[in-house]
Amino acid sequence: MPALVSTRDALTVSELTRRIRQALESGIGRVWVEGEISNLRQQNSGHQYFSLKDADAQIRCVLFRGQNRDQAPLRDGMQVQIQGDLSVFEAQGQYQIVVRIVQQKGVGELQARFEALKRRLDAEGLFRAERKRKIPRFPRTIALVTSPTGAAVRDMLHVLARRAPWVRIIVAPVRVQGDGAHEEIAAMIRRISEGTIPGLPPIDTVIVARGGGSIEDLWNFNEESVARAVAECSIPVISGVGHEIDFTICDFAADLRAPTPSAAAEMAVPDQTDLANYLHRAHDRMETCIRSRMEQSRRLLDLVSRSAAFREPGRILAERQQRLDDSAQRMESAIETRLHRLRDRVSHATRLVEMSRPDRLLAQRSDWLHMLGDRLNQAVHRRLEEQRQRLVPLGNLVRTLGPESVLKRGYSMTVDSGGNVVSSVSELSRGSRLVTRLRDGEVESEVKDVRPGT
User: Fold this and answer.
1) What's the pLDDT tens digit per position in 282-296?
2) What CA–CA distance (Å, rounded) separates 123 from 405?
3) What is d(CA 31, CA 321) in angstroms, rounded to the nearest whole number?
4) Which string of DSSP letters, residue by residue, matches 21-85?
5) Which ranges of 90-206 does DSSP label H, i.e. alpha helix?
């Protein structure tokens, strides 16, 4: 039998698991790990569970809802790099990584954040073309939201002074690099939009700009707060951040994107040389048009001055008066003719009304009904007399051919008890009751014997 061992120092499973978790979290803690996603499971709660594996091993991972919300959608087979805290899920005794950041393998963290934020804001409709406003063609005041000491502001001031020296320029100073710079940029855009800066004149256009640099240098213009401030600005915004190859979230949210700060200044104002040339051409066209119009008016005036209205106004007036009198006479005649026709129509209508009086109509209808009644009686009497005349010879013929006439000549007629005429002895039998009709009466008899003839 093995010797008994004291168990006073034995750990429970929970205690051991807790010590392992504490050792992993304190000993390893937050790590970056890369691998392939497999067994991805999306819960209704919004949490995502998956395994991160390579050719020889795998580890369980959990990405809680709200973490890394700007990430691209995960899928099985995706090669990713994750940052998270190594821990233990004590209920199952399984170690896992609680994920904080997920980015595709080969894409830097900032680039991944850039793409994720761009997708999310685009899905909200922040970059829709129909919400972008037209940049004023002839602004009077332009605000430059940029660093007051950078090369970008000097380039823009030079371009604006050369192209449109009459435009008032207001430099709204902000930091364009470093921690918290995006909050300054967003706050300045909102103050300009709301008009809360004392003594600030009405602004027609806002230019948000800075010079070129790395993605880290330009990152403040990729922050969500700057994008929303630009999109919500009540004044049209031009974004001129970085070089031509650089794109920021600010560019997509602005009403117009310029490849550089200098290009933004050029887009904001017309060129005075081009404008002067345009005004000269417009002046020449207007002068030509005025000359042409004056020449047309001169010819018209000359034509009018040689017309009869200018040479003999009295005669023309007299002719117009005579025509007026003639028209008045024709009108009076036409009115009289019209009134005469109307009187005839009224008279005719009066006669029709008189003829349509109810008492007269009733009398006419009564006479007509009496006449119809007389004609009907005459037709009935005539019809009856015709039928009577047709029945007299028929009656005589019936009387001549009828049984009464035959009986008067000495013949008789025998019928059985049912009233049927007996025409043959074969219809009789002994005991049959017969009635024999004679000229002056009837004789009842009973058959004693039936003897058919030969």
Assistant:
1) 998 999 999 999 999
2) 124
3) 111
4) HHHHHHHT-EEEEEEEEEEEEE-TTS-EEEEEE-SS-EEEEEE-TTTTTTSPPP-TT-EEEEEEE
5) 109-124, 151-163, 181-194
Residue where one domain finishes, among candidates 270, 302, 333: 270
Within 8 A by CB and 6+ apart from 222, the residues are 110, 113, 114, 117, 215, 248, 249, 250
- Sign, CA dihedral 122-126-132-138, equals negative
Amino acid at 11: L
- Look at residues 246, 270, 294 and tell me which one is the last residue of a structural domain: 270
- Check: CB of residue 248 under 8 Å from CB of residue 218: yes
Strand ranges for 320-372 from DSSP E: none
| 3-class secondary structure, 9 | coil
Residue 53 in any domain: the answer is yes
Amino acid at residue number 8 = R
Instruction: Dig out the tokens for 280 from the structure.
Output: 């000269």
Q: Which parts of the chain register pLDDT below 50?
A: 1
Residue range of the domain that includes 89: 13-107
Each residue of 85-99: pLDDT tens digit?
888 888 887 888 899
Sequence-distant (6+) residues with CB within 8 A of 263 are 240
Do 218 and 137 lie in one domain? The reply is yes
Are 31 and 86 within 8 A, CB to CB? yes
CA-nearest of 133, 44, 143, 61 to 100 is 61
Same domain, 88 and 226: no
Residues 6+ apart with CB under 8 A from 308: 315, 316
